[in-house]
User: Fold these one by one.
Assistant:
Number 1:
Amino acid sequence: MTHGMRTDVHTSPGSGGDRRDNAARYALLPLRIFLGVTFVYAGLDKLTDSAFMKDAGAGSVGDMMRAVRDSSAVPALVDLALKSPAGFGYAIALGELAVGLGTLLGLLTRLAALGGALISLSLWLTVSWASDPYYYGNDLAYLMAWLPLVLAGAPLLSLDAVLRSRRRGRAGGYR
């Protein structure tokens, strides 16, 4: 009797295949919720902190930028922020808020995730660059966390999925 490789890919209802398939489909949802909530919170926290949105003073974005200028990987980026620290603070806060809401709603998710990755990259290259060892700085971890959403988007439980479904419906079901 010869034994060959099994070629069927169907699973029986009790085999756990359906659960694995569902788990794979929903795998990015916890990451999407975490990043979305975190960035909404970060944006709102900055917008409601009167000390943060100042050019100078304890807890201000200006003082933070001056403190990290010489240790950042890209001092020119910090210099750009220091031209208008409050404007930079508002830009970061509003960017975080837009990225977070887009991610939570699943609206233009890949674009929102790219925005989140760029915010995280800029903060890593400036604010947390001097973290030693490097893994103490959280901005690099956030940058890496955004990349799966940049690549995959939000195919489920998202406005992107609803819009995609409507477009397919108007096209008569053709892709």
Note: The helical segments are 17-25, 29-48, 61-68, 75-82, 85-105, 109-126, 138-152, 159-170.
Number 2:
Amino acid sequence: MGEQQHVTFPQEVIDEYASLGVDLRALFSAGHLGTRMGVQILEASAERVVGTMPVEGNTQPYGLLHGGASAVLAETLGSVGSMLHGGAGRIAVGVDLNCTHHRGARSGLVTGVATPVHRGRSTATYEIVISDEAGKRVCTARLTCLLRDLGPKDAQQTSGTATG
């Protein structure tokens, strides 16, 4: 669960990170939390990030998808988009996450799609729509990330995750 086997990146992004010796798949993974929750990133570019997460194992006591699990998926996808927008010389740090939960999900996979609302020099904001297998919206989230220049200390830590 959570392995990034099917992620697709634009070739210019792969080349940019490879020139810096950065493992792109590890950098844009969902990290340890995402792995535990079964998050898989299927598509990634600054214009659109798509990922899935199973409902099973991510529920609250009533058997519904936990709102915090939706928040993890949303922040993961929005952070990946922000990192791709910022480029290899910057890191994205989440500074604001808002989630509105529209309906419950009891089984199957939920899919999140992150698209940019704003992509500036110092911040990036993404809207993330999470839907169930029937295509019904489960959650709408908005994530704003601060974009910082990558320092020497940050470079050593980027082999982990893009989420803030």
Note: The longest strand covers residues 137-149.
Number 3:
Amino acid sequence: MRKSAAEPEKRSAAQAEGRCACGTVRFEIDVPAFWVWHDHSRATRRAAGSAYMTWVGTWRRRLRILEGDDAISRWEDEEAAATRSFCARCGTPLFLERLTSPKFIDVPRGLFATRTGREARYHIQLDQQADWTWAGGPLSPLKGYPGVMQERPGRKPKPRAGSQSGARLATDPFDL
């Protein structure tokens, strides 16, 4: 039986609200999210400006824009076969819509103030991981700078599997 347009949509008992940096775009998802993972791909690294992005994946129908729909700018990312959305005012990455998964939408985990019902337990595109990413080695406090930690000096770390060592094979300077 099909629902009529007048019937309210089915929602879960709990939601997690997220927003861009400036607060112009606000949205919510029903929790629990479907899954959460760390994306180490070059395309995401460039779009996020960081070593990797942690994504919350949810069914598209479980995401609602609460405010700022007119401030969402979209960009077709041909390399990733996806559409990336950003806040047109502050530039915050908002959504990733992959052509291979049209019923899902991915949202950066850092945009949520509360829990999403899932922990990040997966890593994708580790073969594209930046060789400058902190690998979880030991840290110690930096004397005179409260709250700042430093990697302990010592032996040079061994190259990670899949990383490029010695002569760089990359031709794109942004891959460094």
Note: Confidence is low (pLDDT under 50) at residues 1-7, 165-176.
